[in-house]
Prior knowledge:
Layout lengths: L9 H16 L3 E5 L5 E4 L2 E2 L6 H7 L7 E5 L4 E5 L5 H7 L5 H7 L4 E3 L1 H13 L4 E2 L6 H11 L3 H6 L3 H12 L3 H24 L6 H13 L4 E2 L4 E3 L19 E6 L1 E2 L8 E6 L6 H20 L6 H18 L7 H7 L56 E4 L2 E3 L2 H10 L8 H4 L7 E3 L2 E5 L4 E3 L8 H8 L11
Parallel strand pairs: 1-7, 5-6
Antiparallel strand pairs: 1-4, 2-3, 4-5, 8-11, 9-10, 10-12, 13-16, 14-15, 16-17
Helix pairs in contact: 1-8, 9-10, 11-12, 12-13
This protein binds manganese (II) ion.
Manganese (II) ion binds next to loops.
Amino acid sequence: MSDKSAGHNWPEIYRRRRERIRDRIGDGVILWLGNSLQPRNYEGNTYPFRQNSHFLYYAGLSKPELAMLSFPDAGRDILFAESPGIDTVIWNGPGPSNEDLAQDAGIDAVQDPRRLQTHLDLARKQERPIHYLPPYSASSIYRLAALLKTGPEEVKTGVSEILMEEVSKQRSLKSEAEIEQIEKALSVTDRMHRACMAAARPGAREIELSGLIQSIALSRNMQQAFNPIVTVHGEVLHNDSKETVVGDGRLVLNDSGAESPMGYASDITRTFPANGKFTDIQKEIYQIVLRVQLEAIDMAKPGVTYRDVHTAACGIMVDGLKTLGLMRGDAAEAVEAGAHALFFPHGIGHMMGLDVHDMEDLGDIVGYGKKEPRSGQFGLKYLRLSRPLEPGFVLTVEPGIYFIPALIDRWQSERRHEAFINYDRVRDFVTFGGIRIEDNILVTSSGSKVLGPPIPKTIPEVEEACGCSIQPVWPPV
Length: 477
Ligand SMILES: [Mn+2]
């Protein structure tokens, strides 16, 4: 891929990553499938291509329809790529040769894609296990079914658990070169958030702000790591930015992050007043969320489980909500019962790397390991990371307080957790919206470190950034 950071021998990094996974798997063959182009409305008009993140991690090549085989016993890998024909050159220009691709990935052998079938047929005939990761797109399921001469359902049940575990272990620990990529993305995300604060004003539309921040990333050759959430309805957790007009006195929630050209994510949330000044009650709720976030960052260190960080964060939140008369009773008991989830129905954070929810395609093995089941309790069931933290993990820390009218109505009608929730007081906040504050941290040997440049976060910092004039995307000539 383009834009490799200087000072790192990427072909050697990919080669070593594959060597390690081959050693851990030990037998059979490992099949790595790259992604295909996804059509928008007909085959030739496609969505922007995004490579499979495992393929990026082990080969770094961002081109559709690639595949790779790793042979643990022979200690080698083969790349499978179609040779660019004259039509490709005419329509898409002269791209890199297959030999160039192989060299970039640190692979010695490159073969025609039709040879992949021959290798797999032989492995099946010899009854050697074929290890592959769970496919998440219909095109990959279909491609795997054809290659393995089986059906889509059999493809899903035949995934390699040992490969999932070992990939999860390896990708969970981020190297210095990977942290550099995440920080590169964050430096653009910082610009996106500052521009959004500066440009927002009563009367603007959510979609204008969303368009502005996306243009900032695009003009630096970066995609978004996920669909940005820029909205006055922060209480709708994954609200798409719409034509909604930003009202005076409203809070704008911006949850967005650029993706580095090598595919690394960033994921930042800031919430700010549309007119540049927080009201008193907005300040009070904001301060509770900020305190929870800072204390959660402080708690994150090796050996501590993220579930304990989540639970402690919920307790601090309940204490804060009690001072405003929204909750009552013993904070620990309220959290144990799940009463706080009326205001905070999601988890404190998740792993982040090449995916914004890193390796979510591998399931709970990443955030929970093999032994710990995920809780079924409302709120806690959305905690994506629970396991003990290790140096090298990159996580998000993202508490929020939301006033979700439909949830308040339902719980109040059921008189749910009445011992802990003061519904009469909650009614005063029903049009408040929501506040979330999110940063990306690296777990270090002794604690944790917030990644990227400082993005306005305290009330004075946010109000100052809201009062700035908008910086042009391109410097004036
Ligand atoms: Mn997040």
